[in-house]
Amino acid sequence: MNFWRSLVGKLWATIICLVAVVLITLGLFLLPYIDSNFTNSGAIKRLFMYTCMIGFSLTTFFALFLFTKITQPLQRVIEASNNIRRGEYGTRLTLVTSDEIGQLATSFNHMAEELEKNIRNLNHEKGHLSSVLRSMSDAVITFDIDGRIILTNPHGQSLLEAWSDLKWEQESDSELYTEPDGRSDVPPPLNPLFQSTLIQGGDQRSNVHVRQGVWSVHMAPLYTEDDIRGAVAVLRDVTEEVRLEKMRRDFVANVSHEIRTPLSMMQGYSEALLDGMASSPEESSELVQVIHDESLRMGRLVKDLLDLARMEAGHTDMQKAQVNMDDLLDRMFRKFTVRAKEREIHLQYRKLSDNLVLEAADEDKLEQVLTNLLDNAFHHTPAGKNIVITGEESVLEGRHYVEIKIIDEGVGIPPEDLPFIFERFYKADKARLRGDSGGTGLGLAIVKNIVESHQGHISATSKLGEGTRFTLRLPVEKQ
């Protein structure tokens, strides 16, 4: 530190100037008087000079004393303050004096200790908040008043990166909030909600649709005293919940439709019998047969619904044992051979591998799977075409599977319907009325549940007008 810029340096310079002014003034008035009234004027002048030198020496000693007691401690205080400013909150002063500087050092140490404690608590709270945000399964994104991103958690960052490559289609009549220079980090689906939050100052909730997903957004304002300084958005992926709710509504509607049809027919034909519309025993027998067939169909529907409900709830009774799939496939081939001859369809069984054995499987359930798949193939394959059953062993990701394929040359499934064929009551053939084939629309859903209960996998590929291929993989080892 420059001595002349210090407090002691300025004080010393001031005292020197005052002493010099006093001595010069005295000299100007006393020297002529000494020369005219004293015989030994030289000795008096020397005494005056010595007095000036001693005065200047005393002021210098006083300045050095002040420098030691004031300037150096103040320099240490300044150095410690700079350390605190640089983030070294453990800095302490070791000045042991009873004057004001000692009190200043004590107050500084208390202040530094409190500041270190507060900073430690703030870092702890910051770490706690960061841990909470990282552990949240929801996406959290914080924006400032200009729409710039302040803070995100990992899920929020991943969501922003996933949305960054999308081309948003903005409606011309929507007034989206943007910052003054025209840039904003707020994704366009969140912009209307962000604007409403800033204008209304309250929590806002909405569902936004991005690609094939649905996101539930809860946005709340951030306040600094009474002024809004931004907003925080919490986004939750509710695609599955929305899909399940739609499935539930569709399920209720489909069940109602499926049951209403046989009920209506049973009611109509029974009323016809009661009104005596049957003019002969043959007609009465025909009406009773229709009622009987519809009751059987309703019974099959209720049974399939109960079976499917038990499977989806995980309460399926599986009698698992070692199953020879080659014997089962051969038995299924012989079972459907007569039907193939009646329909003039060429049914083939190709064994592509030996020793097709599952260590733990339910043979009855697998027979139900194959029966449903072959029954589907026969319903959609015209006369003169082929249906092929193949069985082979395959290895996928180090695991051994028995791979069964049922290939038909039927009408095929449209590409837009293919992802939904394993859903309940879904029928890809829109021209076929419910009930025409005697099916319940639950066959493939039951097939999928049985296969998954064996830790297997089923998939389908199809080409419209050329046929469909169902591929069934069942693990060989006991799961």
Please name the defining characteristics of this protein.
10 helices, 12 strands, single chain, five-stranded mixed β-sheet, five-stranded antiparallel β-sheet, alpha+beta, 479 residues
Structure, described:
52% of the residues lie in helices and 19% in strands. Helix 2 (41-85) packs parallel to helix 3. It starts with 6 loop residues before the first helix and ends with a strand. It has 479 residues and is α+β, with helices and mostly antiparallel strands. Mean pLDDT is 79; it is low at 170-181 and 430-438. A five-stranded antiparallel sheet has the order 2-1-5-4-3, with helices on both faces. It is built from ten helices and twelve strands.
